[in-house]
Write a structure and sequence with these properties.
Elements (H helix, E strand, L loop, with lengths): L11 H9 L1 H30 L2 H21 L3 H8 L5 H25 L1 H4 L9 H26 L3 H10 L3 H4 L8 H26 L8 H36 L1 H14 L4 H15 L4 H32 L9 H26 L3 H26 L2 H24 L11
Helix pairs in contact: 2-8, 2-13, 3-5, 3-7, 3-10, 3-11, 3-12, 4-5, 4-7, 4-11, 5-7, 7-8, 7-10, 8-10, 11-12, 11-16, 12-14, 12-15, 13-14, 13-15, 14-15, 15-17, 16-17
Length: 424
């Protein structure tokens, strides 16, 4: 078996050399993007916790999760196909097709979600009121545009612009102050205004560099249909549980407990910034034809080199971080610690999808994401009723333990440990 060493750059020259490697360059700016987004989110929620009531914060997390569900349902897998087929097709047609389809879809899904809100989440039934419904749908469309344009920057290996896009999101922090009179909807609206400015910047930049004709390329849709639909189903199973949980907790335990859960979950996921970024870059580089074997080793080594100190810091400093949001949030310390420890298992899972996507084995991703979907939501529901919000942590840890066992079995069956077998 060949090996790869992860050397730490000792000088500015070596750092520039590392950033010349497309895997590390894209990962570097994706990490910067997520760090800036998380840092912004940290101050955003800290300020929101001080300006708004705990109940308002909890309901706002359910609103933002509802928005996430609408975006997730409306992507139709084109965010994955954009990355996978962007280097191989007419870039203008790929970008335009993905943008048009997902924008129209977000509008339709937003309407459907509001019509069924009494069934999905009775606590959010106020969204049926005309003014709230209109704002919710408008923000959903804007958010969808920002998501696709951000994916386009990553696909172009221009993640530095993705970083700039995320800097616009920092504006949601000052927007919180004048919108306090709106209560929970003020928190939601502050996010929407920031997404509006980010999407305008993205569209202007991509119009100049890639082009935009607002037409759907039917040939591209046909060619990517199997890949898009497979990843759509897979990503639904992957994303829905974490988006549903704040809504579930609001309805089972109330807004205050949902707020404590959301803050702990947001902090706990800080340690997954680097694994997620390297996972995305691994997919991008594999799609550009770069060697999968070498990049998997580099990504794996970098992930755990970051995770070990990051998890230790979060485990021992979690109480201090939670206290910054208010004394009530310290109740979620045990949950935060369990979530941070589970990241060692989640990192293995994060490498599975890009490896299989590059190899065009979407079916295996669907199966493992379905298992995660059923395990996580089922265990969370049972454990929340029995243990409260810390039950989410127990469910998270057990789910990833079982998934890692499955991944090791698949890796052994497909001869991953003989890296020569890991072909595109």
């Amino acid at each position: 078996m060949s090996t790869a060493k992860l050397a730490i750059p000792k000088s500015l020259g070596e750092l520039k050399q590392y950033l010349g490697d497309p895997l590390y360059k894209n990962s570097f700016f994706i990490v910067l993007s997520r760090v800036s987004n998380v840092a912004c989110g940290f101050f955003f929620w800290m300020l929101a916790a001080r300006l708004y009531s705990t109940e308002d914060v909890g309901v706002a997390t359910a609103l933002i999760s509802s928005l996430g569900l609408v975006i997730q349902f409306s992507r139709l897998g084109f965010d994955f196909s954009l990355i996978r087929f962007f280097p191989l097709n007419d870039r203008k047609k790929v970008f335009s097709t993905c943008l048009v389809i997902t924008t129209i879809s977000s509008f339709g899904v937003g309407i459907i979600y509001i019509l069924g809100i009494s069934l999905f989440s009775p606590e959010l039934s106020f969204l049926k009121e005309g003014k709230y419904a209109l704002i919710f749908i408008l923000i959903a469309v804007i958010n969808s545009i920002a998501a696709i344009t951000g994916s386009t920057f990553v696909a172009k290996r221009d993640a530095n612009y993705y970083f700039i896009q995320n800097l616009f999101m920092a504006l949601r922090v000052p927007f919180l102050i004048p919108l306090t009179f709106l209560g929970c909807f003020g928190i939601f609206g502050a996010n929407g205004l920031a997404f509006l400015l980010a999407s305008l910047f993205d569209l202007l930049l991509l119009y100049k560099s890639t082009g935009l004709d607002l037409k759907v390329d039917k040939k591209f849709v046909r060619e990517s249909f199997k890949f898009s639909s497979g990843n759509y189903i897979s990503s639904m199973f992957l994303s829905v549980p974490t988006l549903v949980l704040p809504i579930m907790i609001v309805n089972l335990l109330g807004g205050s407990e949902a707020a404590k859960y959301y803050i702990a979950f947001s902090i706990g996921n800080l340690v997954l910034i680097v694994p997620d970024a390297l996972s995305t870059s691994l997919f991008v580089e594999g799609s550009h034809g770069e060697g999968l074997k070498k990049n998997v080793i580099k990504a794996g080594l970098a992930i755990y080199a970051f995770l070990i100190p990051a998890v230790l810091f979060l485990y021992f400093s979690g109480g201090f971080l939670l206290k910054l949001f208010g004394k009530d949030y310290v109740d979620a310390l045990e949950l935060l610690r369990i979530l941070s420890l589970s990241s060692f298992l989640a990192a293995v899972y994060s490498l599975f999808a890009p490896i299989q996507n590059v190899r065009m084995k979407v079916e295996s991703i669907i199966k493992i994401n379905l298992a995660r979907f059923l395990l996580l939501l089922g265990l969370c529901y049972l454990f929340i009723l029995k243990f409260g919000i810390v039950g989410v942590g127990y469910a998270w840890m057990i789910t990833y333990m079982l998934l890692v066992i499955v991944i090791v079995y698949v890796a052994k069956k497909e001869n991953w440990f003989k890296f020569g077998q890991m072909k595109m």
